[in-house]
Write a structure and sequence with these properties.
Number of strands: 9
Mean pLDDT: 87
Oligomer: single chain
Low-confidence stretches: 1-22
Largest sheet: 6 strands, antiparallel
Radius of gyration: 15 Å
Helix content: 25-40%
Order of helices and strands: HEEEHEEEEEHHEH
């Protein structure tokens, strides 16, 4: 724990920057939150992860804080964190419900979030309480535009 904290602080003090590749992949059939999480709906279940755009801005992920199975999550509420060499960021749930599975692979291989954000780097699976919440999320075209506008501000 102390070494992770030290690494985060060292990266922050050194102001390490990574070349921005200028694009991020967006998957058509997913929904997106403005906090850069994605959700893939499978019946009443939802798979949640962070977007390619988010992982690209974070840099190399070194640790993922996962919730417990059975924990309740609320739309827009934090359920964990992603720590990279550049920063630590909260992960917010795009939907409300109960966590039914966590990606245990991330404990040993947090870099899956970078290498495969939409496949092997998923974070949690949630049994959704209210599918109508999906209506407040962005589709792929809206999210792509949102990212372009956000990047233009920086």
């Amino acid at each position: 724990m102390a070494s992770r904290l030290w690494a985060s602080r060292a990266a922050s003090y050194l102001r390490i920057s990574v070349f921005n590749r200028g694009f991020a992949s967006v998957v058509k059939d997913l929904k997106y939150a403005d906090s850069h999480e994605w959700v893939k709906v499978e019946g009443k279940s939802a798979v949640v992860g962070i977007t390619d755009h988010a992982q690209d801005h974070l840099g190399d992920v070194v640790y993922v804080e996962l919730p417990e199975v059975g924990a309740s999550v609320t739309q827009g509420g934090s359920f964990g964190a992603v720590e990279s060499v550049k920063a630590t960021s909260d992960i917010n749930s795009p939907v409300s419900g109960k966590v039914v599975e966590v990606n245990e692979e991330l404990s040993n291989s947090p870099g899956l979030v970078n290498a495969s954000p939409y496949e092997n780097g998923w974070i949690i699976k949630v049994e959704m309480e209210n599918a109508d919440e999906l209506n407040s999320l962005m589709d792929s075209d809206q999210y792509s535009k949102f990212c372009e506008e956000e990047d233009a501000k920086h």
